[in-house]
From TrEMBL:
Keyword field: DNA-binding, Transcription, Transcription regulation
Domain HTH araC/xylS-type residue range list: 187-285
SMART domains: HTH_ARAC
Source organism per UniProt: Sphingobacterium pedocola
Name used for this protein in its record: HTH araC/xylS-type domain-containing protein
UniProt keyword DNA-binding, yes or no: yes
Amino acid sequence: MTPLDNNDSFSAFTTPLPANSFFSELSLVMQYGIWNGGTVSELILPISGYLNIFCIEGQDPCSYAVGNRQYSVACDHTNVHLVTTGQLLDISTIKENVKIMAFIIPKEYLDAHHNTGIMRSSDIWVIRTNSRIDLIKQRIATLYASEDLLSSIKTHSLLLEALALQVEILLSENKAIVKDQLLDKVIEAKKIIQEDLTQNHSIGDLAKLIGTNEQYLKKYFKQHVGKTVMSFTLETKMLYAKKLIMTGNHRISDVARLTGYKHATHFTTAFKKYFGFIPNSLKYGFLAFHEAFLRVWEFESFVFPLLSV
């Protein structure tokens, strides 16, 4: 490619691209307001969406009603309601020394999070605030009295920041809930394996029995148990088989059947691979030891009474 001549224009060598190739649209129009207790009774909600209720000033919980249901919100929490256009927000019960802030996020903006389970309840979500959200509330309360453009822009920015922080908190809480639920699934899977060692459950079978998928079961089983599902199953079967053999009361074919092997030869191969010796050697070794012990016991039983005479 040769350099551009002085009389060439750069536009001759480029094709303008549409703006939407590089720009992302933030189509979020929030409705918000701040009221002192005793100044307003009922408000008709202007849009459908997620209604956030904050207490800005006052230590006592704020009492209010959405539709026909009564709620209260503590100063260190946010209540989030899924509301529809025309519903009533009744704040007539809020005390005079309390200031309340509410803003509504359009429903479609957070529906993706609702549908994926981050927002788990269908009625109300109670979110604990943190120091950053508390600071945002105070800054919004200060800016709200001003009606200039800059204050309005700052208020919108702070509301978006508060929204982002709330979603972060919900995500964090959701991960903790999911982690606990998956731990319960792992414990349930272990119990199924241990309760009936005659069964040979595949990972897919176990996942269905406990109500999860193979990927989660494999990942979190290894994470919590320190072994894969198959390694844990094999270890449990082999240790149980060893215990049965050492009682001296079971044939190898019986032990094979009790640990889920249709053929004794398959069991013997698995046992040797796991322990390094065949199950018969353990059985005969145990029997030889037991016989020797009985001989010593019989000898002592015979000799010591003679010595005591």
